[in-house]
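Thread: quick sanity check before group meeting

JM: Hey all, I'm pulling together slides for Thursday and realized we never actually wrote out the predicted structure for the chain we discussed last week. Dropping the sequence here so it's in one place. If anyone has concerns about the input, flag it before I start.
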Amino acid sequence: MRHPHAARAHLSDVHSLSTDGPLATQAVGEALGALLTAGDVVLLSGGLGAGKTVFVQGLARGLGLLGAVKSPTFTLVHEHHARAWPGARTDLAHLDLYRLEDGRVADLGLDEFLDHGVVAAEWGERLASAMPDHVHVILAVPDGDALGTRRTVRVEARGKRGRAIVAAFAARSASPPPPAPSAGAAA
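JM (edit): ok, ran it. Output follows.
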C-alpha cells in the first residue's frame, strides 16, 4: 500500500463539470496535471471512447510532458520521462488495465515508480483497492449528445492527498479565467 496513513478510502470531495470537445477535455486534464507531484495516483473510469486517453494527454501536458500520449491498450504501460522534456516536473506512467488479469496489480511495480512519478490508470477501478489514496476521474458521454463530443467529468477524492488535490482543482476551476487583452492593447 503506497500511503499507509490512508488505510481506508474516503469520498470527501467531488467536483463535476462538462466539456464540449476533446480540446476542452484535455484542458481539464491539464489543469489537474498541474497540481500533481511524484507519488500521486489518478484512476480513470468510463466506457470505451469516453475520453480517458484524451484526458491523460492533457494531464501529461500539465506535468510538462510534451510528447505524444497514446493509449497503452496492448502494452499495458507507457512511461513518459521528465528528463526528455525541459521544464517537465515528474515522470508519468500511463496504464491501461482493461486487459489486466485479476490479481496481477502487484506485478506492475507501481510503488517503485511512484517514488519518482505520477500514475494515471485507465480502467482504474481495478487498482483502487491497491491505491486507496488517489483521485478518481469518471468520464461519460451525456445522454442526448447527438454528436458525441461533450463529456461529463466527475473528479472524486479518495484519501488525504486525493482530497487536497481535488480541493485545489475545484478552487482553480471555479476561478474565472484572466481577462483577454483588448485588441488595442500594447504588447
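AS: nice. Helices lie at 22-33, 52-62, 110-114, 159-174. The chain has one domain: 10-174.
JM: adding both to the slides.
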